[in-house]
Amino acid sequence: MRMGINTFLFTSPFTNKSTRLFPQFKRWGFDTVEIAIEDPAHIDPAHVKRELDRHGLACGSACACLGPDRDLRGTPTQQKDALKYMKKVLDQMVVLGCPSLIGPVYSSVGRADAVAPADYRKQWATVVKNLKGLCAYAHERGRQICMEPLNRFETDFINTCDQALKLVRAVGSPALKLHLDTFHMNIEEKDQAAAIRKAGKRLGHFHACGSDRGTPGHDHIDWKPIARALKDVRYDGDVVIESFTKDVKVIARAAAIWRRIEPTRNEIAVDGLKFLRQTLGR
């Protein structure tokens, strides 16, 4: 099990210049970096890989960033643009040595509304079709896609582990796994540990975030059952701190961060990593 940090905590968008963050990530003790690739044109993956190697880090995951113009259940143009974008990220991941494309790959973040059952079924079929093709593309390149349920305020499509598992089964690709996040599970799951156990061997990625989107361990989440569940399912993937602050204004707006949740973002990284290593025993 490796410990990682999501770049959204410190910058948006991630560019070649953002590699200046890597020395600090290494000094703090992180193993991996989760790079949010908002626009593939912003980075030279070969340069980023050299900087990762130079500082003894790995790109453990690439965060798919789906805004209003990228949506696998949207208009034909939105679907096409989403697929084109994620295929480009998958290509860059090969150069980066990154195994996992993660996040809510099925739809744009923030699209949440009441959907009639008949419309939902049509959207479901469209997403399944698109994911089948995208997963085949990933599988050919030796990459996996880890799909993340989001809370009800950020999507109406996939909110729970059960829904995500149903979609994984419908797509039927070995390249498609689950990505669970403690912040979203705290809202949508009745029992986070039970959700982890349901995911079982299909759990491919894990986000550790405080209940208020702050520091893991500085919140009301009961982390001990989560740690036991991860151990029980023999999860050996990355555990990544994905938290947000007001400092990165674009992401603060998108994640509805209207106040300072922690004194500094550095404390989220340092204190969160210390807590997770103590709690997870890694």
Account of the 3D structure:
This protein has ten helices and eight strands. It is of the alpha/beta class. It has a single domain, classed as TIM Barrel. Strand 3 (58-63), helix 3 (76-96) and strand 4 (100-103) form a beta-alpha-beta unit. Helix 3 (76-96) runs parallel beside helix 4. The longest helix is centred in the middle third of the chain and has 24 residues, at 117-140. The model has no long low-confidence stretch (mean pLDDT 96).
Distance between the termini: 7 Å
Q: State the CATH topology.
A: TIM Barrel
Helix and strand pattern: EHEHEHEHEHEHHEHEHH
How many strands appear in the DSSP assignment?
Answer: 8
Poorly predicted ranges: none
Full CATH superfamily name: Divalent-metal-dependent TIM barrel enzymes
- Calculate the mean pLDDT score and round it: 96
CATH structural class: Alpha Beta
Number of helices: 10
How many discrete domains? Answer: 1
Largest sheet: 8 strands, parallel, barrel
Radius of gyration: 17 Å
Structural class: alpha/beta
Overview in brief:
By secondary structure, the chain is an alpha/beta fold.
Features:
eight-stranded parallel beta barrel, 282 residues, alpha/beta, single chain, 10 helices
How is this fold's topology laid out?
Blueprint lengths: L1 E5 L15 H7 L3 E5 L8 H10 L3 E6 L12 H21 L3 E4 L13 H24 L3 E4 L13 H11 L4 E6 H7 L3 H8 L3 E6 L14 H10 L5 E4 L7 H6 L10 H16 L2
